[in-house]
Amino acid sequence: MHGTDRQHSEQLFHDRQAAGRAESFDTGACTLRFDTDSFLDHETWMRPAFELLGELRGKRALDYGCGHAMAAVTMARAGANVTAFDLSPGYVNEARQRASANGVNVECVVASGEELPFADASFDCVWGNAILHHLDLTKAARELKRILAPGGVAVFCEPWGGNPLLGFARRWLPYSDKERTPDELPLTRRDLFPLRAIFPSVEVRGFQLLGMVRRVWKSPRVLKRLDSADAWLLRRFPALKNWCRYMVIVLRTG
């Protein structure tokens, strides 16, 4: 699909998603307010990934493809000067409402990750969750490098496509929260090539190897043991990260 058509399809999909979410807020079924710990602990990779941003107080931070903008609010609560953007006007509207409901200031704009409306070296750190796999990574990486200040860091949490069994499940098995746009696919090793070509430092950390069964199995005690086993296995055998459900990708400008 042509890039413009792909972006239009993505925008429509996420605007529809945002509209459904807006109805739940309007009826009181959901709330725009949230607490930081619940957000950071809702997936096993979130808190470790957030810590990779470093000290946020006084930093210029970007929530890249912000969606519901909980990350933007979390960074603002930590003292960062935060900007959030998304391709979807519906989600940008939710971002503005969520920032207001939680009593923080976040500048919210509609934009594409492949053509950012920000000046060179505008940000000290960038956060993104499940966004890179929607983009042309060569274009996105060039823009990321351009808007990051010297010594800056970008942290992205992305679904990973290295495990063929997980790929089969994603394609054929029913489970909750399976909505996807027509063109999105999890990242693979090949997708890291344009990132490595543009950034001098690209670090990749895997999460949820055995622990990925939490998608269908909810026993806290079992999941805690599996997460501990994952930590041990990935330290001992780093190559196993290719079979994980999610990757945290850290880009540094130098």
Commentary on this structure:
It is built from 9 helices and 7 strands; from the N terminus they run H-H-H-E-H-E-H-E-E-H-E-H-H-E-H-E. By secondary structure, it is an alpha/beta fold. It has a single domain, classed as Rossmann fold. It is globular. It starts with a helix and ends with a strand. The mean pLDDT is 93.
Mean pLDDT across every amino acid position: 93
Domain module tally: 1
Strand order of the largest sheet: 3-2-1-4-5-7-6
How many runs of DSSP E, i.e. beta strands? 7
- How does CATH name the architecture? 3-Layer(aba) Sandwich
Radius of gyration over C-alpha positions, nearest whole angstrom? 18 Å
- Straight-line distance between termini: 34 Å
What would the CATH topology be? Rossmann fold
Judged by helices, strands and strand pairing, the structural class is alpha/beta
Q: Please trace the helix and strand order, writing H or E for each element.
A: HHHEHEHEEHEHHEHE
Based on CA inertia axes, which overall geometry fits?
globular
So how many helices? 9
Biggest sheet, in brief?
7 strands, mixed
- Per CATH, the class reads Alpha Beta
Percent range of helical residues: 25-40%
Low-confidence stretches: none
CATH homologous superfamily - what is it? Vaccinia Virus protein VP39
Proportion of strand residues: 15-25%
